[in-house]
Amino acid sequence: MTQNPTQDDTQTLAPQPDLGRRKFLGTSALVGLSGAGLTLGLSACNKETAPTAAAPAAKGEATAHGPYEVAPGKLDDYYSFSSGGHSGDVRIYGLPSGRQLKSIPVFNTDNLVGWGITNESRAIMGTKPDGSLKYSTGDTHHVHQTYTDGTYDGKYFYVNDKIHSRLARIRMDTMECDRILELPNVQGFHGTFTDKRDPVDASINHTTRVFCGAEFSTPLPNDGRDLEDGGKYRAMFTCVDSESMEPRWQVLIDGNCDLVATSYDGKLAATNQYNVENGVHYEDMMAAEMDACLFFNVARIEAAVKAGKTTTIGSSRVPVVDGTRAANKDPKTALTCYVPIPKNPHGVNISPDGKYYACSGKLSPTASVIEHELVLKWFDGGLENPRDAVVAEPEIGLGPLHTGFDNKGNAYTTLFLDSQIVKWNVEAAIKSYQGDKSAKPVVDRIDVHYQPGHGFTSMGETKEADGRFFLSDNKFSKDRFLPVGPLHPETAQLIDISGDKMKLVHDHSVLSEPHDSIIVRRDIIKTRQIYDLDEFPLAVKDAKESGVFRNGKKVTVKLTSQAPSFSLREFKVKKGDEVTLILTNLDKVEDLTHGFAIPKHDINFIVSPQETKSVTFIADKPGVYWCYCTHFCHALHLEMRSRMIVEA
Ligand SMILES: [Cu+2]
Predict the structure, then answer these.
(1) What DSSP assignment string belongs to 245-287?
(2) How far does the centroid of ligand 1 lie from the alpha carbon of residue 590, in Å?
(3) CA of 13 to the centre of ligand 1 (A)
(4) Can you state the percent helix, strand and coil of the chain, rounding each to 5?
(5) C-alpha to C-alpha distance for 531 and 593, rounded to whole angstroms
(6) Could you tell me if 607 and 585 are in contact, meaning their C-beta atoms sit under 8 angstroms apart?
(7) Handedness of CA 181, 186, 192, 198 (dihedral sign)
(8) Distance, CA 593 to ligand 1 centroid (Å)?
(9) Residues 6+ apart with CB under 8 A from 267
């Protein structure tokens, strides 16, 4: 990757596939048409000599675009995976264009794909005994990917739900949620982060744990006891197995967990804390001058769990260890270390070299730099005061929140109150803290519009931070876009950080209410183009297997789709039947997705190539219902229907 993209090298950053339109038509749309006998009229277009309307532009033509513009037919250099806040989803954007590519439903229901409608998605989301969804709301805040050898491996990413304290996993080959876990005995699960390697076993150089920080303290167990006794409220930090998605252990703490960071050596997980006062109301939460950055010694906690030095809470079987201050006074046996940080910090991020954590005080104009080795030294008994692990505390501006890093030792922190991004140099900050008056930590500032929350650099949460871009997710857009009513879109602003001065590249609008993103080089992401029939236990592998199968009042309807028809032109059920409809898309052509909507029965979902989904509903109204394909698939898409006849 080049550090300073010029007009020419944006064209050479990565080879671009030939997206010639006729070539696409030749391999996909025509295959879809062949069954309908329409190939003849169009096949003349499918020739190598046909003009390529959107072929890669000639060099001279392409340079008419700015250095950051992704010209028509070109692809972005990065993916950005962004939480959707209380929309409950995750979004994928391309960068530098800012084009939204996909919304992945997670905790929300989604009509487009049928998430929350199909039996398969409802099983992942969780249902009550009566079959209805346990929760239909969610609040996604933080997305973090699996690592191998200190950088992204493109396998999974995880996202939290703050409302119901759930952790979801998204597999990155299909970009779909495959597991959701509800954490026991916690509320306000806010920060989450994957670990980067095992603290003990050197052969495990990849993610095996996901850490989950709970922000809100509650009585434990929260079953009606201690309702008015705020002193008994406690929060916990949870470790989840990244493969099984089962909780491994929890740590009882003082204060709360906010954001989470993990070390590159796997030894420490960290969470910034505001409200060390354990206040219940906000004025109580701002009383203390110093809050904390709390470190967890992962190996010691797991040794304590193995040794059975644990309790359980309520009906949960998850082992809980005691990480409160009172139980961890001796550094040599401590499971936790509370490093004092000025006033209500929000955000903790580790530098790509693994040496430093930046923890910013929201109500203090400072960023505290904590040295990783010094925290380990405290755990070894070699550092008297945890505060001595702080090696710099530059004043950087008002309302500092989250920090991203480049590959040259610079940090970029969002300043919520100043509406700025401040660039500061970590080594200069350390020298200044040591008394060097010539050291000037702050290097540059740039205005953003307005009130930035999270900010992140390209590949900045990996050892492969590349120092090309910073993305500022802003909380207010005000006057930046055409007015669309009282609810405004949010802004994301892309900033070029490759030079000495930060340069604003563009604004792009983002639907409410993004919180956090990761910016991932595109070569890391390897998605599949079609599914495999064998992945689905219910797959109807041959159109001949289609039919209506009755077992008392329970009826199974099996059908397949292949453009432009469903395998059953009609199917009959009786009023009051519980109908389970299984649909397999037998089309094998990339991007040839079909939809299936059943009028008056509140059913709509899609099946992508070689995919199977099922839905269950009560056929409670006699009559004729035209089930139709909702996802445009073919010239005869409108004709693609099946008639459901419900007999009285
Ligand atoms: Cu269709």
Answers:
(1) --EEEEEEESS----EEE-TTSSEEEEEES-TT--SSHHHHT-
(2) 13
(3) 37
(4) 10, 40, 50
(5) 11
(6) yes
(7) negative
(8) 7
(9) 199, 297, 298, 299, 376
Residue carrying structure tokens 């008394």: 435
Lay out the sheet containing 89-95: strands in order across: 99-105, 89-95, 78-83, 517-521
Q: How far apart are CA 596 and CA 612, in angstroms?
A: 12
Q: Which residue type occupies 14?
A: A
Ligand 1 centre and the CA of 630: distance in Å?
7
pLDDT one-digit tens code per residue, 164-189: 999 999 999 999 999 999 999 999 99
Tokens representing 310 are 């644990």
Q: Which of 129, 82, 79 lies closest to 106 in space, CA to CA? A: 82
- The alpha carbon of 632 and the centre of ligand 1 are apart by a number of angstroms equal to 6
Nearest to 471 by CA among 453, 484, 489, 444: 453
Widest CA span in the chain: 88
Ligand 1 centroid, distance to 584 Cα (angstroms)? 12
| Tens digits of residue pLDDT in 249-308 | 999 999 999 999 999 999 999 999 987 777 777 777 777 788 999 999 999 999 999 999
Q: How many A from CA of 631 to the centre of ligand 1?
A: 6
pLDDT digits (tens, 9 = 90+) for 483-517: 999 999 999 999 999 999 999 999 999 998 888 99
Nearest residue to 618 via CA among 593, 646, 638, 643 = 646
Query: Any residues with CB less than 8 A from the CB of 308 and at least 6 apart, and which?
Result: none
Q: How far is the CA of 637 from the centre of ligand 1 (A)?
A: 5
* pLDDT over 50 at 11, yes or no: no
Cβ–Cβ < 8 Å for 610, 588: yes
Beta-carbon neighbours within 5 Å of ion ligand 1:
594, 629, 633, 640
Q: Is the pLDDT of residue 246 over 70?
A: yes
